[in-house]
Amino acid sequence: MEIRDLKIFLMVAEKKSISGASKFLYMTPQGISKVLKKLEEELQCQLYSRDPSGILLTESGERFRDYARREIEAYTELEKDILRIEQRQKKEVDLLSAYGILRLVTPDCITTFRDRHPDIQFHYREYPDLRVEELFAEREGNVAFSIGEFDEERYHVTPLESFPIKLLVNENHPLSRKETVTIEDMKDEPLYIESSQFYIYHLITEKCRQAGFEPKIVFQTSGFSLCHKMVSANKGISVAVDFIYEDMKKSGMKLVPFSDGIYEWKACMLTRKEEKENEAVRLFGEHIVQWLDKIQKGEIKR
């Protein structure tokens, strides 16, 4: 009995159809049927029956489904544990980064680290920040950059930099004439914002709901660039932080600070407390902190 066979069985149980499962597994129905027959012969029982609604699990099939789920979950955890061991021994950094943070630390930071440590294998993947948190919680990667507040009992949390989130408006918009704004000023304004996979989306929508209204979101996107483009065209308003605004700055726009609470884009670096120290990850963390310190001192330009 192989893990692959268990996954095939679970897909058939989920889809209640061999032909339906075949589309997801990229297998022929005949190949799937052969696996199911092998499992039944090995267990000496009938795992499923057919009726007009599709394939149904027998009582034995339901019990086997529970077993298959546990075995796959345990095997997945084993794979991740072994990967962590191998990464530590081979000196690997496997970085999960939220969009925007590599812009914050600059690509040169990564290039310099690679040049200084050619013996360290470096990999990175970028995702929306909430997806980074999900993957890291599932034990993907061995270091993460993300946005927000984090469980310091579970993770080593190193603050990188924080920026106030501000309202982004066209200079011809009436709100551009204000020195500060409140969340109520956003009511009924067409809003372009990053999607629900981003921390900033949830912060702004929750602030609006606390103020008693739903934001008028006309479009959700996976990055700041479209928001800036639409504000530049005076199609609506958005929110942004200083360093991204300066990096993507177009004429005719203005950032206006909020005055009614904490609106913060807080970038952090995470490692897991449960894992043995990875020398490569430790060196990378030290490099990041030193690099950002040089940016703050003006020795390196962002």
UniProtKB/TrEMBL annotation:
Lineage, highest ranks first: Bacteria, Bacillati, Bacillota, Clostridia, Lachnospirales
Occurrences of domain HTH lysR-type (ranges): 1-58
Originating organism: Suipraeoptans intestinalis
Superkingdom of the organism of origin: Bacteria
GO terms for MF: DNA binding; DNA-binding transcription factor activity
InterPro entries xrefs: HTH-type_LysR_regulators, LysR_HTH_N, LysR_subst-bd, WH-like_DNA-bd_sf, WH_DNA-bd_sf
Protein name as catalogued: LysR family transcriptional regulator
UniProt KW keywords: DNA-binding, Transcription, Transcription regulation
A Pfam family this chain is assigned to: HTH_1
Keyword DNA-binding: yes
GO cellular component, one term: cytosol
Protein family (similarity comment): Belongs to the LysR transcriptional regulatory family.
Coiled-coil segments: none
Signal peptide (from-to): none
Amino-acid biosynthesis in keyword set: no
